[in-house]
Design a protein that fits this description.
alpha/beta; transport; globular; binds adenosine-5'-triphosphate; 8 helices
Length: about 250
């Protein structure tokens, strides 16, 4: 088994419209199996575009990408949908829960779509719900729970099928600092307990410092990266310093 879970080579994305825009200009990036990496950069630098190309929400204009040694862009629509469901988990800023379903039904959705048998569903649900500490809200509707709880439910749904790669776009963007901290502690323990490979976009240096490595984008390219050493505080400071240097929307720091 290769120790590279995600291999991106010379990824380009051009948005074609009234005004054409080169959002990604040749990104080379590798995520190791079991690695946790944060993606940062000024507003408009291409972070979400990069994540959307990896998650196959958006199609790159050029370049190559493999996830777990497979190229999702070679698949037809049906196989791509299966590939997404088996290999990838997604967590978004706005939770993306289905409001007509209960919390439990939301979490089980990926297994329902894959017609997993009832016994296995029950055991996986029990494990993930216990791990995330959301046993008490299983029968509630999504409008009856807090933002922090919503994100836990979204995380449970993203990991219940044990994806090879978990992708998160601003997962704490709609949370207060206490809920954000608790969601990040959860990501960290999912990563450590289940050896989940994790790629997360965030604009928050504290949130980013939960990762083992931070990559910085600027103007559609990779600008720099920082590896976490022994001291989280020092890592955090280096992240803040790089963002300050990059400017563009990080002046509030
Ligand atoms: N569908 C689209 N059509 C045209 N241009 C787009 C489209 N989506 C994004 N862009 C442009 O591509 C660039 C990168 O956008 P992207 O959303 O990836 O940046 P970002 O780094 O995630 O920004 P932010 O931190 O503000 O979310 C921006 O200049 C944006 O205006």
């Amino acid at each position: 088994m290769s120790d590279i879970i995600l291999n991106v080579q010379q990824l380009h994305k051009d948005y074609v419209g009234e005004v054409n825009y080169k959002a990604l200009k040749g990104i080379d990036f590798q995520l190791k199996r079991n690695e946790f990496v944060s993606v940062m950069g000024p507003s408009g630098s291409g972070k979400t575009t990069f994540l959307n190309c990896i998650s196959t929400i958006d199609r790159p204009t050029n370049g190559s990408m493999t996830i777990n040694q497979k190229d999702p862009y070679e698949l037809n629509d049906e196989d791509l949908a299966k590939f997404r469901r088996s290999e990838l988990g997604f967590v978004f800023q706005d939770f993306n829960l289905v409001h007509t379903l209960t919390v439990e039904e939301n979490i089980l959705l990926p297994l329902t779509l894959d017609a997993v048998n009832g016994k296995e569903m029950t055991s996986r649900l029990a494990e993930v719900v216990r791990f995330l500490g959301i046993e008490d809200i299983m029968k509630k509707r999504t409008f009856e729970i807090s933002g922090g709880q919503k994100q836990r439910v979204a995380i449970a749904r993203a990991v219940i099928h044990e994806p090879s790669l978990l992708l998160a776009d601003e997962p704490t963007g709609n949370l207060d600092s206490k809920a954000a901290n608790s969601v990040m502690t959860l990501f960290q323990s999912i990563h450590e307990t289940f050896q989940t490979s994790l790629l997360m976009v965030t604009h928050d240096p504290y949130v980013a410092s939960f990762a083992e490595r931070v990559i910085f984008m600027q103007d559609g390219m990779l600008y720099n990266e920082i590896q976490k050493g022994d001291h989280k505080q020092q890592f955090y400071q280096e992240i803040v310093d790089t963002l300050t240097f990059l400017g563009g929307g990080y002046h509030e720091l």
